[in-house]
Amino acid sequence: KQEVTQIPAALSVPEGENLVLNCSFTDSAIYNLQWFRQDPGKGLTSLLLIQSSQREQTSGRLNASLDKSSGRSTLYIAASQPGDSATYLCAVASYNTDKLIFGTGTRLQVFP
Amino acid sequence: GAGVSQSPSNKVTEKGKDVELRCDPISGHTALYWYRQSLGQGLEFLIYFQGNSAPDKSGLPSDRFSAERTGGSVSTLTIQRTQQEDSAVYLCASSKRGGNGEQFFGPGTRLTVL
Fold it and tell me: Do B107 and A43 make contact, defined as CB atoms within 8 angstroms?
């Protein structure tokens, strides 16, 4: 059974810092991995999708990497801003299912 | 273009009542998913549609939960005889194709069962 873990559970940093959010999964037979952002009381916004054949994806200040063999992904946020404050979720899609399995999230606060 | 929409945004109901939650996927997306987000349980998969068929219903927690999709578009999630433990945010997502395509989520319906 696929299990997804995110570390840390919460993170508070000053504006301008570069930071790394971690996601690990137990079954390496994944089809893809998605990173989402969730603002309080809102739905999920897709940030980056990494296919299993890819090593990383970049969008603006965000960079996500994938090491399938070790069951790890990281989301790197450069030059963090207060507007980045949200909960970040990673989710994996396994080859044998069509559903996403979500991690428990990292709650990020960036203060001015 | 328009994203995934869900209605109502909030629903408060009394224990024992039936509720219907609606999801309008992105136009042209053939795959539709329902998830539930509750305190202490995180985000859980409920059901997956490909067109009007539901090849994976494995996440539905009990037979009080059912869902249908018509015309390959709108989907309705129905909860009968609601219980307090059904209180959660119900999220719908769609993707251009099944088979683990990128999923796009709606804003959710917050259900509160008194």
Answer: yes
